[in-house]
Structures are given as structure tokens and as C-alpha cells.
Amino acid sequence: MDQLLVRAARGERTERPPVWLMRQAGRHIPEYRELRDEHTFLEAIKNPEIAQEITMLPWEYYEPDGVVMFSDILTVLEPLGFSYHIESGVGPVIDDPVTGPADVDRTHDDVSQKLDYVGELLVRLNQRVGEETAVIGFAGGPFTLASYAVAGGPSRTNMPLRRLRAAHPDAFRTLLEAFADVVRDYLEFQIGNGADVVQLFDTYAGALTREDYEEFLLPLHQEILTDLNAPSIVFVRRMGGRLDLLEASGADVVGLDWTVGMGEARDQLGNRPVQGNLDPSYLFGEPEFVRKKTRAVIEKAGPSGHILNLGHGVNKDTPVESVEAFVETAKTTER
Questions:
Q1: Can you tell me whether residue 163 is helix, strand or coil?
Q2: Does residue 141 surpass a pLDDT of 70?
Q3: pTM of model > 0.70
Q4: Whose CA is closest to 253, among 1, 22, 15?
Q5: Is 90 exceeded by the pLDDT of residue 222?
Q6: Which of 73, 121, 126, 223 would bridge 140 by S-S if both were Cys, CB 3.0 to 4.6 A apart?
Q7: Nearest CA among 32, 218, 23 for reference residue 136
């Protein structure tokens, strides 16, 4: 069956805007914190039973129009031979980062074997709620993954990767291509195991100049996203003024962060479906404030091809009642 979210992703007029939240699987929900007290992050994502329980928490609270699998963008490092761990207060740490051009020429192992636990999770989710809501898969984008791999962990400026681009442009291209190859296979694997919609998070790629984005990254986004067997969403942070690059990505839906005006984006993108883009900080307001701001996004987005979401992930300290107000507003808004 065609879920509401799938129809909106195809650009169809829907009776109301479908709604989900990036990073909705857990984080701000009390039961998630209880589960994380019992299991490390990697234990949770690699155990399909635990990952299913966490994925389902937002469904039990809000019944959004999509459940996004509980996982991490860095899982796809494994088929490329990288190893990583999570340090409290630091985040992901790459144990064997790229140190120079000699480390970039990589081929990946079979995704279906290395990441079989993701496939099992998606099958479980379809069995549990596949008739009621869309199942959403995702992957990190080449630039974002390469930034982690070169910096050895999170990097606010992405300077280690940008230095590699300046000093060794061929190596930079080779590394991005290696990630693009494995990400394409990974998204196809997810779709084959029941993902109704997939999202490419190349969140950090807004750090590139327009020229570098067009030369190095846009062709890879097109390679990853064109002709997938399910609707796709592309998300890059801080792309105001460069939405044409997202429009050309091959994705069905352009994700918008909160710094982009929804009305202006609609004017620029025409009939292209969009996703977003409430400022996540607004969810710290009173429920009526949340409803007012949410209605404004819906109104500016128009009656077709809009998936309501935040302009970035839901903060871990967000009040449950604010998320309830956000989701409820979508569900009670008629086109």
C-alpha cells in the first residue's frame, strides 16, 4: 500500500501533511534513556531486537507517518574496513582514520553480510507496523562520512577533510567515490529489506564551496540517488542560496534546514517535493507556540509534496508534550 509519506514524496497532493522527526528514534523519550542505561549505543544498534524496541518508542508515543530505523550513519564504515567506537562526551571515534593519500583507495565488503543486523531490523519493522506507517531507512553522505574518517571523529569545521581536498584533490575524490559506492549499495540493501523511503544525510557538505560541491560531490549524489526503487530524500545543512544543487541531486525530496525560508524554497523549487523545516529550538516553547509555528510551515509549504519535519534532529532534551503538539498539528491540518 502507498503510505501517506510515500505519496507526498512523489509530489502528490495529500489530505494532510505527513509528519516525522529526524532523530526521533529515542533520545528525548524517557524509556530510551532507560534502555541506554542497560546497553551501549553500539550494542543497541547491532541487536535488532533492541533496535526495534527503540525505533518503536516514537510510534507508541505519537504514531507519526514514518518510523525511522534506529541506527547510525557510521555503520557503513564497517564494509570499508574502518572500525569505530563511541566515547561518552566525545561521540564516535574512528580507530583507524585516513592519514593520507595512501589510505583512500578502498573497496567495500558485501553490505548484506557486514550489516545484516540492519536488514533484520527493517524486516522486523515491516512485520510490526508496515501496514500502518512508512518505514524509513537512511545513510550518511560521502562528504559527511569522509569528514569523520579523516578527522577521526566529529569536526565542526571539517578542516581535516578540506585540507585533504586542497593538498591532494585526487585522493579527496577517490575517498568520496569509495563512500558513494558503498552508500548506494547500502540504500539498495535497505530498500530490498523493506524501507519505504530512504534519506541521504550529507549534513556537513554545506561546508564546501559551490565550485567544489559541483565538481566533487554533486555527481556522487546523483550516482547514489538516481533510480532507486523507493522515494529518496536528500538533506544538507545550510544550503540557503544553493538549493539548485539539492534539486539536481537525483533525490525525489529536498530536505530543508530551518535557515531556509519555506516560502522562498517553494518559489525556487517549484513542484519538487520538500521536507521540513521547523526550527528544532521551537519545540522548547509552550505547546500553543509549537502549534502556531508548525501551522506557519505547513501553510507556506502548500497543499502538495510536503513532508513535515524539523529543520534538523530533535534535541535530546525536547519535552514530549511539544513533540505531541507538533505531530498533532500535522494530523489535524486539512488541505
A1: helix
A2: yes
A3: yes
A4: 22
A5: yes
A6: 73
A7: 23
What is the overall mean pLDDT for the chain?
A: 96
What stretches of 193-281 show up as alpha helix (H) in DSSP? Answer: 210-212, 218-225, 243-247, 262-269
Residue 13's DSSP bridge partners are 304
Q: Which CATH architecture has domain 4-331?
A: Alpha-Beta Barrel (3.20)
51/25 Cα distance (integer angstroms): 9
Instruction: Work out the burial of residue 146: count CB atoms within 10 Å of its CB; fewer than 13 is exposed, 13-18 middle, 19 or more buried.
Output: buried
Beta bridge partners of 200: 139, 234
CA 243 to centroid of chain Cα atoms: 17
- Kindly indicate the confidence band of residue 288, based on its pLDDT and cuts at 50, 70 and 90: very high
Helices marked H in 130-203 — which ranges?
A: 142-151, 159-167, 169-192
Residues with catalytic function = 23, 27, 36, 72, 148
pLDDT of 256 over the 70 cut: yes
* Domain range summary for the chain, segments of one domain joined by +: 4-331
Q: What pLDDT, on the 0 to 100 scale, is given for residue 86?
A: 87
E strands present in 214-298: 232-235, 253-255, 274-278
Higher pLDDT, 197 or 90: 197
**pLDDT value, residue 205:** 98
